[in-house]
């Protein structure tokens, strides 16, 4: 479920000295627990843009993320390119995921990231009608494309306060391997990863 190298800025502000690590496509049993362990061990928080089908398949992982203080957000049901779908299908992709995430966490998500960063005025309108703020990213190390852990760390070394960073939680071991070094480097720079407002 790869994302293209699109770069777009999140509309959401971050507190001074923080940036936002975000993880798309999960939850996944081969990556979510390790990502969560690395984040909680260092006091960092992140935002997980979850696919509804994956959330339904692994509800215990959604609840674990929520209990740990991570932001839970909507990344569609099955990760299609939404602008190419009929509008009723777009509605179902977004609202079905909202229903599952609300059921699992006890509150509706407020953030939405369209798969591949691909949106349109109609997609944005449907998301807004569902109470969601469309949220993209500033920094993309292309971890979905087999980027080596050291390169992921190097790209994230360029991230600045207020940036939203795109990462993936779909069983990618390179991301899991890179994350402890990423978090250590952020801490050394006096930066923290914070969950986006949720």
Automatic annotation (TrEMBL):
CDD domains: CE4_NodB_like_6s_7s (cd10917). It comes from the Bacteria. Signal peptide: none annotated. Residues 17-194 form the NodB homology domain. PROSITE patterns: NODB. GO terms for molecular function: hydrolase activity. Coiled coil: none annotated. This is Polysaccharide deacetylase family protein. It comes from Kitasatospora phosalacinea.
């Amino acid at each position: 479920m790869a994302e293209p190298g699109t770069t777009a800025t999140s509309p959401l502000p971050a507190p001074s000295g923080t940036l936002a690590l975000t993880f798309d496509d999960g939850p996944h049993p081969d990556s979510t627990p390790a990502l969560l362990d690395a984040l909680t061990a260092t006091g960092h928080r992140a935002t997980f843009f979850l696919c509804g089908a994956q959330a339904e398949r692994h509800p215990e992982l959604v609840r674990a993320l929520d209990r740990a203080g991570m932001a839970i957000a909507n990344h569609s049901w099955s990760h299609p390119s939404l602008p190419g779908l009929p509008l009723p299908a777009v509605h179902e992709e977004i609202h079905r995921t909202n229903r599952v995430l609300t059921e699992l966490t006890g509150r509706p998500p407020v953030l939405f990231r369209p798969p591949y960063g691909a949106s349109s005025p109609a997609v944005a309108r449907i998301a807004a009608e569902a109470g969601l703020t469309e949220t993209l990213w500033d920094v993309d190390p292309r971890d979905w494309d087999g980027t080596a852990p050291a390169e992921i760390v190097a790209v994230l070394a360029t991230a600045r306060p207020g940036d939203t960073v795109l990462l993936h939680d779909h069983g990618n071991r390179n991301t899991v391997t890179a994350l402890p070094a990423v978090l250590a480097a952020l801490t050394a720079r006096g930066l923290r990863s914070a969950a986006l407002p949720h």
